[in-house]
Amino acid sequence: MNRILKSIALLLVVSSTWAQLPKDSLWHLLPNNKKRNSGIGYEEAVQMMKGKKSSVVIVAIADAGVDIYHPDLRNMIWENPGEIMDNQIDDDQNGYVDDLYGWNFIGNTTYDNMELTRKYARLNEKFELKPEVQVNYPDEYATYLQIKEAYLNESKESKLYYEFFLNMYDGLVAIEEQYDGPIEITTIENHKSKNKGEEMGKMMALQYAKSTKNFDFQSLKKELKEGFKQFEYQYKYAYNPKFDPRPDSVGDNYLDLENRIYGNNRVYYGEDFSSHGTHVAGIVAADGSNDFGAVGICQNCKIMSIRNVPEGDERDKDVANGIRYAVDNGAKIINMSFGKGYAEHLNYVKEAIEYAASHDVLLVHAAGNDGKNNDISDNYPTDFQDTYPNWIEVGASSWNAKPRAIAPFSNYGRSSVDIFSPGVDIYSTTPENTYEKYDGTSMASPVVSGVAAFVWSYYPELSAVQLKSIILNSAIPIKGRNKIPGSRKRTKVSQISKTGGLVNLPGALRLAEQLIQSES
Questions:
Q1: Which residues touch 21 (CB under 8 Å, ≥6 apart)?
Q2: Which of 428, 425, 396 lies closest to 295 in space, CA to CA?
């Protein structure tokens, strides 16, 4: 899920923390530098592989959909060789009709609930005002009470933030309407508010001005509008237990886990709902042969689009079936830039992960953006404490040196997060021929997927387990004591991740070459 601002304080922290932006828009591709620009060493890797042959690697982007028509992606999109488009026939007989570019497991779904809401709705129906059932199922009832408390707290919070952002945004709009021309900071300072909303907007603008060197009224208004839209979604859909888009938007029986054929072939769902997946895809494989836009890390990759993430929490059935589809149709790497704190059908997801492992497919997953320790906080899906050796869990790093090398929003975990990777101010493709910079472990994960795909394209004889080992063992240690996300404390990065390091492409290539030479 695309995680939103949890408070107005976070908006200010993020704005002030990254006020000094990287000089290069593609900083994540630059060489590793002890002072700044701790990138992956892309150009060195390209020079290392000059004159060597590579093979195509299919990377599945399990996400909200990919703009397959984007000029920086259209030459990099996987096409199903056994399928004839739009003939309404399952030509390759894989069960999916006209699946030329991938598959959409959520049909026409745009908004969906949080998993917490779905669990609350199910348990509420079973236990609320039913004392006999409560007595007969004491353990499950105890779970329900915990879920109920969490749901009510988060639901209440979403309403408060919705009203908060709405009032501030309306206040800014009201202020703007009273003046001609651009709104400068002096205009805000001298403005006499006529109501509470205007005063809230004024106070927010003044705080924003303190946190950034260049006051931009329109940028602030845009940020607040996005915050309002996100919390409006949460209030109306995410925490609404009566809202269920599944019957009309997908049409499957969600509880029938044996049914894997549902959804449709529409893998791009417009700029409002497929921006995240399009951005992720570009990080992995945006076309570097043209003279514009972004540059993907793997230039001999093909992107398969798996649409299984709505605006809301992804459903376990769709996660599992997305993995299975990608495996069955030739993907070697599956990038999963999503996650949630609750799950309903864990065994079904575990079976799919095992299925990927048995077919030598590497799974790369984003650690999450809550500034939490994943060793003690759930973030699904997961490798379930190293059960699956084909899984890499990725946290986000920045271009800064210590003590800010780790992104302040990134989840971490000494035993649950494998490696850190660039995930702040990452420039990539967005729908309808556009480009933007995004932050998140959602961006860090495809950097690792791109590195893995680059290495695999030149060393296809490697196994997924070997490739994971190479990526982790070639990580460059992040030195010094760095700030722990969500805390003022500092520690060595080796204490908040397995490797304590940053992904490095040239180093991974050297280890791959050494391994192949030793086995030949």
A1: 425
A2: 428
Residue-wise DSSP of 46-66 = HHHTTT-----EEEEEEES--
Read off the pTM: 0.93
In the numeric block, the tokens 């990927």 are attached to 356
Pairing of strands 57-63, 301-307: parallel
CA dist., res. 464 & res. 452, Å (int): 9
Exposed/middle/buried for residue 186 (C-beta within 10 Å: 0-12, 13-18, 19+): exposed
The token pair at 364 is: 């790369």
Between residues 15 and 136, which one has the greater pLDDT? 136
Reported as type and span, the H/E element at residue 247 is helix 246-249
Give the confidence band of 214 by pLDDT, cuts at 50, 70, 90.
confident
Q: H/E element holding 303?
A: strand 301-307
pLDDT digits (tens, 9 = 90+) for 273-315: 999 999 999 999 999 999 999 999 999 999 999 999 999 999 9
CA nearest to 372, candidates 350, 396, 392: 396
Residue 367 makes CB contacts below 8 A (sequence gap 6+) with 339, 374, 379, 393, 394, 395, 396, 410, 411, 412, 413, 416, 417, 441, 444
Question: What gap in Å lies between CA 328 and CA 340, rounded to an integer?
Answer: 26
Q: Are 413 and 423 in contact (CB under 8 A)?
A: no
- Alpha carbon distance 76, 302 (integer Å): 5
Q: Which residues pair with 306 in a beta bridge?
A: 62, 103
DSSP 8-state assignment for residue 313: P
> What's the CA gap between 506 and 511, in Å, rounded?
9
Q: Which residues pair with 287 in a beta bridge?
A: none
Q: What are residue 406's DSSP bridge partners?
A: 397
Rounded distance, CA 14 to CA 440, Å? 12
Q: Give the pLDDT mean for 351-371.
A: 98
**Which structural domains are found in the chain, ordered by start?**
24-112+254-519 (3.40.50.200), 115-238 (no CATH)
